[in-house]
Each structure stands twice: as structure tokens, then as C-alpha cells.
Amino acid sequence: MGKIADWVEERVHYRELVHSQFTGYMVPANLNVWYSMGSVLLMLIGIQFATGILLLTHYIPQTSHAFNSVMDLSEKIPFGWLIRRIHAIAANLFVLVLMLHMLSVLIMGSYKKPRELQWISGVVLFGLGLFACLSGYLLPWSQLSYWATTVATNSAGSVPIIGDDMVRWLRGGDRVDQTTLGRFYALHVSVLPPLFTFIVAAHLFLMRRVGISAPPGIPKEQVKKVPFFPHFVLEDMRASYFFLAVLFVGVFFVPQISFPPDAMEPADPLFTPPHIKPEWYFLANYQLLKVVPNEFLGIGLQGLGGALLLLLPFLDRGQERRPLKRPLFLAVVVASLAGFIGLTVWGHLS
Ligand code: HEM
Question: Does residue 118 line the site of ligand 1, with CB under 6 A?
């Protein structure tokens, strides 16, 4: 092995690269567990790509065959059930970890100068992540996926003036049908994955160029540093194993999170099941549209929230990052989080 490594080194000079990027790359010694959420997201993306490719080997993107193709996969193909469960449950975990990553960046103020571009690329990744979930949800063509997609795409109709056109554009017609399945399939398997890869690469490139922030509190000059490898990599692995364990608890013990009874019935456009709702991460938006008396106000509030989030580093320009020294900002974050959780629970129960 040593001889092969020397042979490659003589030609490619990779050792200098490994040193500059891993063993010689110094990061703050006091990075906390929140800094590992980015690596957990990378692991989950890897899992989604690998299981997604395996699912593709059997999936048929036609309304007449889609449901049977995924049922065959779950019931007849060896380990097909496992691959399908992992893909579905890891998607939920991905959204959850995206939210945790975003929340920690908000609380530690690491979106501030010089990390504005990293924040913006993150907000775009968040949007793409939700869109990947929305588009994937329809593919099994079950009662659940058909009606949840109908409800979720209907929400776009609340946008004034262009709302109806947006619904038609999303669905490729007036109803969710073969055209919708075709475009969601194309987006899910051939547009979103490369887009994701590209923007994640940009996000990581920015992280390396700008450097990881130190947790707020200790002045920059006094922060002790440790090599990225092995110190930080081991921390990241610990967090990744924890989330892997959570994933497999879901896969083996509570698969009904992703596969309730309506997911086991083929789509029937003529029969609306009672209590149909979008996935948990869209429930707060859905509930907000239901409770705000004016649809325009409901959608306006959401648009404003999204715009504020995107432009946050340019609106909050103070250099202070310690959360307790930013009480107003902290209060807004806690209130928004409580609002999100409250609306989600309300949406679930109503
Ligand atoms: C596919 C999704 C994402 C991946 C794979 C990813 C990956 C990473 C990684 C590996 C880091 C460095 C270590 C860390 O702080 O965790 C990082 C940092 C960062 N991410 Fe993300 N991220 C994603 C989504 C997001 C989102 C949704 C946001 C916010 C809207 C965001 C904003 C940031 C910021 C501002 C940093 C710098 C943190 C610092 O230096 O302290 N990222 N990301």
C-alpha cells in the first residue's frame, strides 16, 4: 500500500493537498455539536442519492404503473422495503436537520458579515430541500401522495393575480395527473440532484474560503485551534452516527411515520380521503392560510417571512454575535419558532 501511495504521490502530489485541507487546516477548538449539523446533512444527502438511484431501478413514472411499481418494490424485491423506508424517513430527517442547522446559525449569529453568501446559498438549499420533498412525495401515486400534492399545490392559488396560473404551472394543467407526475419526476431525479450538488459545493467552498466561525463569546485572538482532521471529523462522525441511529429507529420501529394507511392505497382522483393534509413541514404554512381570514394576507405574510430570511444578513448588520446580547433578535427567533411549532401542532390536530 505504501509503495502505491508513494507512486501516486510522485505523480499527483496529493499529500500536500491532504495536509492543507485536513491535517493542517486549523479550526476553533471549542466548536460545539451544532457545528456538526452541516456534516449530518452531507451524510443524509449521500443516503438520499444512493437509495434514490436504487429506487429508480424499479420505479415506473406512469399513473397506471407507479403505485404497483413501488408496492412490488416493497413486497417482492429483496430489501426493496428497506431502501424505500430509508429514502422516505431520511427525507423527513433531512428537513429536520436543515431546520436545526439554520436555527443554530441564527442563534450564533454566524450569518453575519463575512458569511452572507453562505447564508444565502443555505436559504436556497432550504427551498430546494422542501421542493425535493414535495416532488418526491407524489411519485408513489398513492391516495396520500395524490391528495397531499393536490392540497399543497392548491395553496399557491392564494397568491393574488398569478395564483391560478401558478397552480396550473406547478401541475401542468388544472388537476394533478400524468403531466404533474411527469414533471415532478423529471424535477426530482434529474433537475434537483445536480442543482443540489452544485449549490452544496458552493456552500462548502465558501465555508473553506471564509473559514468556520468560532462560537460567539471568546475574542477571536484568544480562540485556541485544532486540526480539522482528526478532531473535528471525529466530532462530526459522532453526530452523524447519532442521526443514523435515529434514522434506523424510524425505519425499523416507526415506519408508519412515512407510510400511514392512505400511503397503501392507489390514488383515486374521485375519492377524497377525510383529513387529508400536507407533510408536517408544510403544516404550519397550510394552517396559517386556513386561520388568517384573508388569503392574500396569509400568503403575503409567508412571502414577507421568506424575503426577510433571505435578506437577513443585510438587515441585521451589527457585529455582536452573542445571543444574550441580542435580546430583541433572540425574542423574534423564539417567537417565530413557537409560532411554527404551534401552527404545526394545530394543523396536525385540526
Ligand atoms: C443541503 C444543505 C446544507 C448542507 C449540506 C450544509 C453544509 C454545511 C457545512 C458542512 C457547514 C460547516 C460546518 C457547520 O457549521 O455545520 C455549513 C456552515 C454554514 N451553513 Fe450550511 N448546509 C446546508 C444548508 C444550510 C442552510 C439551510 C443554511 C441557512 C439558511 C446554511 C447556512 C450556513 C452558514 C451561515 C454556515 C456558516 C456557519 C459558521 O461558519 O459558523 N446552511 N453548512
Answer: yes
